[in-house]
Amino acid sequence: MELGRDEDTGGQTRYVIELARALSNRDDVERVELITRQVVDSRVSDEYAQLEEQIAEKAFIVRIPFGPKRYLNKTKLWPYMDTFVDQCLNYFQRARQVPDVIHGHYADAGYGGGQLARLLGIPFVFTGHSLGRVKQERLIESGVPHEKIEERYNISSRIEAEEFALETCSLICTSTNQEVKQQYEQYEHYIPERMEVIPPGVDLSSFYRPRADEEESTQLEKDIQKFLDDPDKPMIVAMARPDERKNLEKLVETYGKSSALQREANLVLIMGSRDDIREMPPGQRTVLMNVLTLIDTYGLYGKVAYPKKHSPNEVPALYRCITKSRGVFINAAMTEPFGLTLLEAAASGAPIVATNDGGPKDIIANCHNGMLVDPFDGDAIEKALLHTLLEPGQWEEWSENGLENVYRHYSWDRHAERYMRDVHEIIEKWDDVPTIARGRRTRRLPELDRLIIADIDNTLTGNDEAMHHFFEMIANAESNIGFGIATGRRFSEVMNIIEEHDMPRPEVLITSVGTEIYYGKNFTEDKSWRKHIDFRWDPEKILELLGGIEGITLQDENQQSQFKVSFELDTSVAPKLSEIKRILRENKIRVKVIKSLGMFLDVIPSRSGAGLSVRHMAYKWGFPLENILIAGDSGNDAEMLSGNTLGVVVGNYSPELEKLRKYPRVYFAEAHHAAGILEGLDYYQFLNDITIPNEKSTLDG
After folding, report:
1. Cβ(207)–Cβ(344) below 8 Å
2. What is the C-alpha separation between 49 and 34, in angstroms, rounded?
3. Do 451 and 508 meet the contact criterion of CB atoms below 8 Å apart?
4. Can you state the angle between helices 81-95 and 610-621, rounded to 10 degrees?
5. What is the DSSP string of 17-39?
6. Which of 48, 396, 441, 511 has the maximal Cβ count within 10 Å?
7. How far is 691 from 71, CA to CA, in rounded Å?
8. Hey, which bits of 612-687 come out as E strands?
9. Distance in angstroms (rounded) separating the CA atoms of residues 232 and 209
10. 226: exposed, middle or buried (C-beta count within 10 Å: 0-12, 13-18, 19+)?
11. Which DSSP category does 336 fall into?
12. How far is Cα 166 from Cα 188, in angstroms, rounded to an integer?
């Protein structure tokens, strides 16, 4: 792993890799997939372009292509997160397997994972690692303007995503008690009962106290010595990427102002790896230049080392150098969610001085191997470092405590045991949630291979006995058969009708004439569809153009929605449909105009509509169109009835649908209402091996 390459390659990267490996070692885990983004970029290793990479016997990195192919900082990923969700759904559909639980790490995966969990109908676990509200607060305290924070970190999107993740999740897995009490509780969707503190494990196999037969010096050690006039002095070591939050400038300033610290120890700054300062990201370049300026201002040449490069396998030896020199490891970050480097130092026998924010509180409480300091108080930092360096008995006690306690409290086996206990509990509770109506349990979309979609008014409804038989039939159908509703009504109205008629909850719900799509038992809205149809949509202009025309009256507010403007027509005086379309077209309004039942007019975005919404849904979830049966009765059903889906026009249809009679994949039933749907199912043998009589073909189900 390229830890420290940039702000996105810190301890969290190691955390998720080691968690995946630890879980894969368990008998109650069949497979662990670590889903991330595929990167195709000559600036990084070709390995990041591999679609799948095995990292343990039952653990795999799965890389999903979305957004630009090149490497992007995580703050630049927000515009592409809905595409990520869609691509993951395609992946699960191809795999024909739905995970039992999704665990999202950090804000962006909190949003993406939460959306996937809602769409798939499975439990969601969230770990924020570093929370946006806390980061924003700390940056403001340090004097960074709010506008700069928003520009650099896209902080509002991050906080909104964290709120969504907290609202969605069944379990919040945190590393420390401080996260629970002082960080998560700042959020509106903070629910204490969902919080579980499980200290991460740490793979400490490479970290140990110095040995008599120590290996020869690494290149990193040699590079450090080149900076120092007296390399035998104790070492104060900080290891962090050059980021404002890591507070490296404060540490250098404190050292520069303290003649006592300069007399007793050298300062070593391991700030990632760099080739050319001029090519570093702007934020990192600024921090590094500030550090170099402070070194020059305080005349610290020969006392401070800041090597240009290091490899991960050189880090364990560096910790042992701290211990051999009787030095100290310091992490004075403004905020530290956990503090992996502090545990590595402890396992190597080095005492620690750490920020009093976040994970270090729990680490020092468990390991008793150092001191906490206010990261903004230079005097406190100086005193803690001098106390560690100048009190031999204290140094020995903290060194031994760290070596002993780090293994006692931070084991991956222990972490995985507690983690899986909680996961089994939320899965068990999740399975107990009732989702049954009329004897039918809501099904998971990726497990379906065909879908029955019907309009509500006068298609499903109108004949209670036939509707009952239809619902009985789909309740008893094989588990691969899904149910959907498509209607011109608004979402809230549909919910009332479902409740009123005790309808089974559909796996797919298309409302407002194909402008809104919802999935699963929780009715999770399709965000990518909403974004797609918003192109050049101008409802105010539509109202301005049509609202004053005689015979065209705006329907009540409860018939309007964000992407649908609905009118009622007085056909005796209103213009013809072709004239209405001409008026809109001449004013450069690109929309669809749909007339139904001879008196209703819906204006919707040009990219929307019942037919396109069905096709978008089919593509998103991997349904062949011929495996989708559509049933309807009126003009606003025409678009979704035509095409490669299998159409059923029920016997009580309105005249607008007569034009579909010659379509080979549209069947006109004799029976009315839901009885017509049942007749159409028999016609296509939809529950068995699908046949299309007019095409004389059989489709293998």
Report:
1. yes
2. 15
3. yes
4. 60
5. HHHHHHHHTSTT---EEEEEE--
6. 511
7. 48
8. 628-632, 646-649, 666-668
9. 18
10. exposed
11. B
12. 9
What does the mean pLDDT of the chain come to? 91
Polymer length in residues for the chain: 701
**pLDDT given at position 636:** 79
How confident is the model at residue 46, as a pLDDT?
93
CB 467 within 8 A of CB 650: no
Q: Give 699's contacts (C-beta < 8 A, 6+ positions apart).
A: 624, 626, 627, 689, 690, 691, 692
Closest CA to 165 of 100, 112, 88: 112
* Of the candidates 219, 220, 221, 203, the residue with the CA atom closest to the CA atom of residue 324: 221
3-state secondary structure 283-301: HHHHHHHHHHHHHHHCCCC
**Lowest-confidence segment of 225-234, 356-365, 649-658, 680-689 by average pLDDT:** 356-365
The answer to whether 601 touches 566, Cβ cutoff 8 Å, is yes
Top-confidence range, 76-85, 268-277, 345-354: 345-354
More confident site: 65 or 434: 65
- The pLDDT tens digits of the residues spanning 121-149 come to 899 999 998 899 988 987 888 788 989 99
Distance CA 350, CA 342 (A): 9
**Nearest residue to 249 via CA among 293, 279, 309, 283:** 293
Q: Which helix (DSSP H) or strand (DSSP E) does residue 172 occupy?
A: strand 171-174
Strands (E), 264-386: 266-270, 304-305, 328-331, 352-355, 370-373
Evaluate whether 512 touches 490 at the Cβ level (below 8 Å).
yes
Answering whether pTM is above 0.90, one says no
d(CA 261, CA 391): 14
pLDDT at 506: 94
Let me know: does 488 contact 608? Beta carbons within 8 Å. Answer: no
Bridge partners of 125? 103, 171
pLDDT band, very low/low/confident/very high, at 699 (cuts 50, 70, 90)? low
Contact 660, 632 (CB under 8 A): no
Query: Residue 701 above 50 pLDDT?
Result: no
Q: Is the dihedral of CA 583, 585, 591, 593 positive or negative?
A: positive
Two tokens, residue 448: 């379906």
Q: Would you state the structure tokens that stand for residue 35, as one six-digit string?
A: 């889903």
Which DSSP string corresponds to 539-603? HHHHHHHHTTSTTEEEPPGGG-BTTBEEEEE-TTTSPPHHHHHHHHHHTT--EEEEEETTTEEEE
Helices (H) and strands (E) in the chain — how many of each? 25, 29
Please state, in angstroms and rounded to a whole number, the distance separating the CA atoms of residues 48 and 299: 42
